[in-house]
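Archive entry: two folds, one per protein. Generate the first.
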Amino acid sequence: VVEYATEPGFRNPMRISGPLATSEADLTARTLLTGLLPGQQYHVRVAFENPEQRRGMGAWMEGSFRTTSQQADRPIRFDWSGDTVGQGWGINPDLGGMRIYEAMRQRNPDFFIHSGDTIYADSPITAEQKAEDGRIWRNLVTEEVSKVAETLKEFRGRHRYNMMDTNVRRFASQVPQIWQWDDHEITNNWSASKDLSGDARYTEKDVRVLVARGSRAFLENAPMRWHRQGLAERVHRKIGYGPLLDVFVLDMRSFRGPNGYNRETTESAATAFLGNAQLEWLVAELMASRATWKVIAADMPIGLGVPDGKDAQGRPRWEAIANGDGPALGRELETARLLTRIRQAGIKNVVWVTADVHYCAAHHYSPERAVYKDFDPFWEFVAGPLNAGSFGPNPLDNTFGPHVAFQKAPTAQNMSPFAGYQFFG
C-alpha cells in the first residue's frame, strides 16, 4: 500500500494498492505513481499487508521526493558515484556503516545516478579484514555475502546486504535514484571471453548462467520501471528533468564484444561496446532533446586504460574503450563514430559522468590534443568509490585528447575507506 501527499501529515493522501510482493521476485515490488504535480515536494509512505489476514498491515515506512519542474525556475542538483561495497570492505558498525551515503543525502540532491557496480558479487566479505597500517576493518556478514555469488539467492543477498545499512536506507527514502550496471553485478570484467575455469572460488563456470541470475537480481532491486510483458528489459534509457536537463543512461555491458586485444582496424561484432542499436538510439535521443544540458551517464570512462590481463597470445587485453595511445582502433572506432555523429548533428552541452576506476577526476577531451580529431570538445567527470577499495590513477589514452584538469587518487592500491579516498560528484 502506497500513500502520498504534498504535506507530511498525510491529510487526505492519495492511496494506491500495489502489486503483491512474492518470493518469485524476492519480496521486491514496485508501483507507478501518476498525475503528480510538477515542481512539488511529495511525502510518501509504504506498508505491506498480508492478503490472507484481515488485519495484516505492517508498519509504515516513510520517505519524500521532489518532482521535476517544467520551468527553468531553479537549478537542478544531482549526485553521482559508483562502486559500492567492493574488495571486501563491507558495512563496518564501528564507523556507523556506509557514511558516504549520509554525506550524499545531506547535499539534498534532486536525484542520484549510481554509475554501476551496485554490488560486488565476486568479492566475499569476511568478519575482519586487514587495512593499511595494520588496522582491522570489521564487517557485518551474512551467509550470502561470505562467498562469491553463484546462485540466485546469493545474488539477491548481495543487494539485500547493502540495504541493511541505515545510511543507505535513509538515502533511498529521500533521494530518487537512477541505477545502471557494470561488471561486478555479475563477476569481475565479464564479457563473452570471461573464463572462470581456473577460478576455484566458482563451482558454476558458465558465465551465461551467472549473467542470467545476476541480471535478474539487479532488475528486481533496481529502482526502475519494468517494460511491458513480452518486451526485453533494458538498462539504457532517457530520463527528462524539464527544460534544463536530460539524462541518457548507457549500458556498456550487455552489448559489448568479448574483452580482447582491442586493436582491430575495422568495426565488427568484436569491437562493439554500446552496440549499434544502442548507439543509434542515443544519437536519436540526443538530437530530439531540447534540454539545455545533456548528461550521458556511462558506467566506464572513455580515455582511461582499464586492463584485463593478457590474451592467449600474451598481448594486453582491455576491459573498457581505451587501448593505448594512437589512432582509433578496436572499440574506439565505435566511440569515434558516436562523437562524430554528435558533432555533425550540432548537439551542444554534452557532459559525461562515470565511475568504475575507484578514484575521482575531471577530464577535458579536445580534438586539439587528440589523434582522432572529428569531434567537439567535451568534459567527462569520474567519481567513486562508495565504501570500496580505492585504486588508480589509470593511464590516459591520447586517442581522443583527454587532459586531466583534476584528479585525486590513493597513495597505494586498494586502500580501505579508513583512508578517506571515497568520492561522489
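Generate the second and append.
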Amino acid sequence: MEHHWIFLYACTFFVSFLLTLCAIPLCKRIAGKTGYMDVPKSEGHKLHRKATPLLGGAAMCLGWCITVAAGFTAAKIWNPELIRPYAEGLSRTAPDLLVMALGACGSVILGLIDDKHALKAWQKFLGQLVIATAVVVFGGIRISLFLNSTVLSCAVTVFWFLFMFNAMNFFDNMDGLAVGTSAIAFLFFMAASIVNGQYFVANLCACSAAAACAFWIFNSSPASIFMGDAGSHFLAFLLAVISAKVTYYNPDAAATRFAILIPLFVLAVPIFDTFAVVAIRLRNHKPVYIGDHNHISHRFCRMGMPPRRAVQLVHLLVLIGALGMLPLLWGDPRTCFILLIQGLAILLLLSVMQYTGIHTAEDRQAEGVEKK
C-alpha cells in the first residue's frame, strides 16, 4: 500500500473525528430544547441518575455524512493523481454511496422516532425491514459468497441487516459499550479491506471508526450524552454495510475460505450476547424486546466489577476475538482451523460466564426466576 493512501486515511479519520466532536455539543443543546432526553427510571432496566441528551446518534451521522460528501466531492473536483486511476470506479459507485448515505440517515430517523414516541416492536421492525430491503435492492449491497441465487443472496443480506439492527440495540446497555465495540470492529474491517486492496472501503471504515471514537469520548462512563436508538441503528447499519462490502476471500490471493468467518468473530461478543439474552427471556416467558439486566456486561458487574471495568473487559474480549481472526486473511488451512478452535473456546468461556456466573439472589431476580 502506498504511503499516499495512509495519508488519505489519516485525513478522513481526522475530518470525521473533528466534525463529530463539534456536532456533539450542538446536538446536546438541541436535545435539551426538543425534549430528546433520557429520563432516569423511565424504563425499569435503566439505571442512570439524571436526564441525559439522546442525540448522540444524530451527531455521529452528521459528522459521517459531511465527511463522506466532502471526500467524494473533493475527489471529483480536485482529482489528484492518487485517485485518477480509480476515477471511473468512483463514478460508478456514486449511486451506491448515495443509497448508503440515505440508508444511514433513514436508520437514524427511525431511531429518533422511536426515542421520542416509543414505537411498538412491529413498527420498528417494519421500518428496519424497509431500510434493509431498499439498501440491498437499490444500493447493490449483497452477501454473495458461495450464494449462486440472487434472491437467496438478497434474503441473507436483509436478514443480516435486521439482525445487526436489533443486536446493537440490545448491546447498547452500558455507557460506551456499543460504540467502543463498533469502533474496534470498524478498525478491523479497515485492516481486512486494506489487505485485499479495497482502499475506498477502507476509507469508509476510517470515517466510521472516527465518528464512533469521537462519540466514545462523551459516551464513556459517566456518559454526558447517549446515542439512543438512533445511534444504535446508525452503527448497526454501518457495521452491516461494511461487513458485507469487505472481500474476505479471494481465490487468487492467499486467504482461505475460512476468511469469510471474520465478521462473525469480530462481532462475536454482541452476536453471542444477543442470542444469550433472547434465550433467557424466552425461557422466562418474557417479551424478547423488553430490556433487562441479563447481558454479559451486567453479569460482570454482579461478579463485583464496576460498570467501567465491565465495559473494558467486554471490549478486551472483542479485541482478542478480532486479533485472533485477522490471520485468516493469509494463513494456511491448519492455522485457520486452530484459530477457529480458539475462537470457539472463547465463546464457550462466555457461555459458562453467562449461564452459570455466581447465581446470587440478584442473578435470579434479574432473570425473573426469584421466588416472591
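Annotation attached to the second fold: The first helix runs from residue 3 to 34. The first strand starts at residue 37 and ends at 38.
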